[in-house]
Please model this.
Amino acid sequence: MAKLCFIHTLCPFIFLFFCNGSLGDYLIGVNYGTVADNLPPPTQVAAFIRDQTTINKIKIFDANPEIIRAFANTGVWVKITVPNGDILTVSKPAGAQSWVDENVVPYYPQTKIDRICVGNEVIATSDKNLIAHLVPAMKAIHEALLQVGINDIQVSTPHSLGIMSRSEPPSSGRFRRGYDRVIFAPMLEFHRETKSPFMICPYPYFGFNDKTLDYALFKPNAGVYDEVTGMNYTNMFDAQVDAVYSAMKLLDYDDVDIVVAETGWPSAGDPNQPGVSLENAVSYNVNLVRHVNSGVGTPLMPNRTFETYVFSLFNEDLKPSTSERNFGLFRPDFSPVYDVGVLRNTQTSPPAMAPEVDKKWCVPRTDASDAALQSNIDFVCSSGIDCQPIQDGGSCYEPNTVRAHAAYSMNAYYQANGRKDLDCDFINTGVVTMSDPSYEACTYAA
Model:
C-alpha cells in the first residue's frame, strides 16, 4: 500500500507527486492523448518518459502500434483501448480473438500491457446497441486473452459520471435507472470474477460553481455535510468517488476495486471561463496526487488507495476548445506547462532517441483492414521485392500476423522505390513514420 511521504522542509512540496515508495507502488499515471498534429514521435515520447520523468504508467485511447511498440522494454505499464467503433466486432469471439492477436500478442510482454479498456465512456454515447454489446465485448476480450495464454492483463472500461442518476450527497449515489441492473450488475460481476477494476472519470472541474471552487481544488473550505452518514466532505473528488461507491454498494459490489481513469484541470481557457488558470491547474493536480498517495482514502472508503490517471500528458492542439487544448502537463516540445514534480531533474533537456531526419519508414495505417494489408503483401511480393524475411523461418516471420508482415513488405517496397510518399500510399492504407519499426532480429530497411 502507498504511504504518505514526509519530505524535508527544503524539498519542494510538489515532490510528493511520486515519492510514495517503490516504482511498482506508484498510484499516479498519465493519459497519453494524441488529438494533435504537432506531437513528437512515440519513440521520443517513450524515451522522455523513461529517462526524464518518474512516470511509470500510461493510458492510451486506442491501440496505436507505434506507441505500443515504442514502450517496449521501457518498464512503463501501458493501458490500451479498444475504440468504441470496434466494440460490436469484438463482442463476438472471433472478432475479439482477431483484435487480441493483432494488438496484444505481437507486443506483449516486451511492452508491459497490463489493462485493456474496452471503449471509452460508452454509456455517454447513448448508443443503445453499443451499450448492449459492451459487457459481451469485455467478456470476449478476456476470453481471447486466456486463449493465447495471457492471464495477467485486466479488462475494464472507463465511465464518465454521466452513469449516475444521483450523486449528492455521496451516500445517495445511484446508477442511471434501467442501466443499473441490466448493464452495471453484470459488468460488476465480471469485475469481481476477474479481479479487475471499475474505472471512472471524476472531474471536479466540470462540477464546481462559484461557491465550490475551493472545494473542487482541495483548498481549505467548510466542506459539504452528508446528513445520512454524518460525514463531512472537504473535497469534491472524494464526494464523486464515494457517490460511485454508494451506487456499487447498492448493487452489492462494494468489494470491486475502483480506478480513476481520468481526472485533471485545464491551465488555460477562454476569458469567460471561471476557475480556469495555471494556478488552479497546479492546485488541483498537486493536491490530488498528495491526497491519492496519502493512503487516507475517502470518507466511505478509509485507508483505501486508488490508481489514478491524470489527464493529460500533452496539450493537444486539435481539441475543440481552448480549455480542452490545455489539460497537458507538457507542451509538444517536452517543456513543462507547470512543474508537478514528475521530472527527474529541474533542467528540461531534449529527449533521447531523437529520430534522424533523413530516416523514414512506411507502415500500415491503424485503420487498415487485414484484407487490404494482405493485398499489399501480395502486390509487393510479386513485384520483385525480397519477401524471404516474412516467410516461415525468416527473421521477420514472427509475429505471424497479416499486419506485421504487411508492415515489413510495405516498407521494403517504399525504400526500394526511393521513399516517395506516393509509394507508401497503398490505396490509403500506408503512412510514413520517423519511428523505426525494427524489433529483435527483424531489421527494417531505411
Q: What stands out?
A: Confidence is low (pLDDT under 50) at residues 1-25, 346-357. Residues 3 and 20 are 6 Å apart (CA to CA).
